[in-house]
Every structure is written in structure tokens, then in C-alpha cells.
Specification:
alpha+beta, five-stranded antiparallel sheet
Length: about 80
């Protein structure tokens, strides 16, 4: 099954940092929430990357990945959904 992956920008309330978030939708259903790591409290190699804040259903994981771009996160969501079909 092929899913239409779309993104919706949304601010995230996390102690005044890491506020840029995106909802990742699969066929209009919420599959994941990613947040851009923009605080100096993160290791320099993670600064600016996107962190899986929450995954739902087939995208739920106990080891949340990080992504260089939202597009990579969308590809990951798609692979999770297709892998578990």
C-alpha cells in the first residue's frame, strides 16, 4: 500500500527551546511528530537535526531516531508503515 506523506508545521512548547515541530501525516492521519533540535543544550553533532518526539501506531519506537531533514523523517515513516503491512 502506498501512503501520501505530508507535513504540517506546528510550534512545540518545550521549555522555550526546540520549538519548531512538524506533524507527519500518512493519508491525512497523524503518524509522527518531529522536533528540530535548536538548543545549545544538545550535543553539537545533533544541533539542527530533527528528533522523533512521538511516533504513533506502526511508527511507535522505544529508540527514537534523528533525521537530517524532515524529508528523511517522512521516508522513515513510509518505511515503517510499509514494513508492517
Amino acid at each position: 500500500m502506498t501512503y501520501d506523506i505530508t507535513f504540517q508545521s506546528i510550534p512545540v512548547l518545550i521549555d522555550g527551546s526546540d520549538t519548531e515541530g512538524k506533524l507527519i501525516l500518512a493519508d491525512g492521519q497523524l503518524a509522527a511528530v518531529i522536533v528540530r533540535l535548536d538548543s545549545s543544550s544538545h550535543a553539537s553533532e545533533h544541533f539542527g537535526q530533527w528528533y522523533l518526539e512521538a511516533g504513533f501506531g506502526k511508527c511507535a519506537t522505544s529508540h527514537p531516531p534523528m533525521f537530517k531533514t524532515p524529508g528523511q523523517a517522512g521516508e522513515w515513516v513510509l518505511s515503517q508503515l510499509e514494513r508492517h503491512t
